[in-house]
Design goal:
Layout: E1 10-13, H1 25-29, H2 32-45, E2 53-60, E3 63-72, H3 76-80, E4 92-95, E5 100-104, H4 108-112, H5 122-138, H6 163-169, H7 171-179, E6 186-190, H8 196-205, E7 210-215, H9 218-230, E8 236-240, E9 253-259, H10 268-275, E10 279-290, H11 301-310, E11 313-320, E12 326-333
Parallel strand pairs: 6-7, 6-9, 7-8, 9-10
Antiparallel strand pairs: 1-3, 2-3, 4-5, 10-12, 11-12
């Protein structure tokens, strides 16, 4: 359907072979040549002017060089062949870090455009300032949550124990069975650490299920992302949250797991207020922790029950696990989410 049958200049863009499936997280973050072609295709689909392109496998003298983006170069000839208002005598300027280099034409006409993009009149500056101030006044205030009114354990690391030890205890299998995790479910592993539960949940929910692994430490998130890629867990996504908000997509998860981490949450009411929004109707929030003082890296079940109740969540299942000190507790959404100022803190 394209009216263009011949091309003056085509480019093979290597993109440094970055892709979203690369094992290195820094390479994945630079996989922008995929975005570029999507933007061109979208512009063309909307009737705009953009270079046509496709992805090709490049072979030179029988040697495979990899995946390249074959795309038109947007020079004056390109524009003139597609737009009556863009003549072949157009000025084409290539921006570079050190200077602007003229590819075709001259800089005189681009220089004439500068006054149109520069704030020169005081009246316009005052207008902008007034608008900005009005925008600042319109910003909503941040919600204020009650403090914890209890001890909070320090984050001692992203490894609870060796995976072999945990496998011998059989905790994960028991927890997933108690939680009723099944194939096709969407689950979240909040405070995922090195991904002990993440990789095991991925196997249970299967190819039709989804696992979101969240952590608040960037270096831990990156290591887990590398593990997910290395083990080819295509049904797992990894994201960075904050101490007060795991940033879960709204009403997206059948089960949300908080495994050996809730005692480290610094602002439990803010954390739960945000977290509960990610639970599907009929979904559960699962807490696995040790029944011991918080500063010994545990939290009594009664304290967990009280704090969840303050956010309108009700326990539906409780069980001691194999170690007898570790417990399982599942909660459902029983009441609407309260306004932050209406939350009644435990012991406050």
């Amino acid at each position: 359907g394209s009216p263009v049958e011949t091309f003056d200049v085509l480019i093979l863009r290597a993109g440094f072979n970055n892709s979203w499936t690369h094992w290195n997280n820094l390479q994945r973050a630079r996989a922008q040549y995929v975005h570029d072609q999507w933007a061109r295709d979208t512009q063309l689909a909307m009737g705009g002017l953009a270079g046509r392109g496709i992805f090709v496998h490049l072979y030179l003298n029988g040697l495979y060089w990899g995946l390249y983006n074959l795309v038109e170069r947007p020079n004056a000839s390109f524009g003139g062949s597609r737009s009556r208002t863009w003549s072949r005598g157009a000025d084409v300027v290539r921006p570079e870090r050190s200077a602007k280099r003229v590819v075709e034409g001259r800089m005189a006409r681009p220089h004439q455009l500068r006054p149109l993009t520069t704030l020169r009149t005081s009246g316009f500056v005052v207008l902008c300032t007034t608008a900005l101030l009005a925008g600042c006044r319109a910003q909503p205030t941040q919600p204020r949550f009650p403090p914890a009114h209890r001890d909070v354990a320090p984050i001692v690391g992203d490894a609870f124990s060796t995976e072999d030890v945990r496998d011998r205890l059989g905790e994960a299998e028991q927890v997933m069975e108690l939680a009723g995790v099944k194939g096709g479910m969407s689950v979240a592993d909040v405070g995922a650490g090195q991904g002990y539960y993440t990789v095991r949940l991925a196997k249970v929910v299967g190819a039709k299920g989804r696992v979101l692994a969240e952590d608040i430490m960037p270096e831990v998130r990156d290591e887990l992302s590398d593990r997910v890629q290395r083990e080819r867990l295509d049904n797992v996504a990894v994201k960075l949250g904050t101490a007060d908000d795991p940033t879960l997509p709204s009403q997206s998860f059948d089960r949300v797991f908080l495994v050996h981490m809730y005692h480290e949450v610094q602002s439990p009411y803010a954390f739960l207020w945000h977290l509960r929004e990610g639970v599907k109707p009929g979904g559960l929030v699962v807490v696995v922790d040790a029944d011991r003082p918080v500063l010994r890296h545990g939290i009594p079940p009664a304290q967990v029950k009280c704090e969840f109740a303050a956010l309108g969540m009700q326990p539906v299942k409780f069980s001691l696990l194999a170690s007898r000190e570790t417990y399982f507790m599942a909660f459902r959404l029983a009441q609407p989410r309260p306004a932050p100022e209406k939350i009644r803190a435990c012991g406050g």
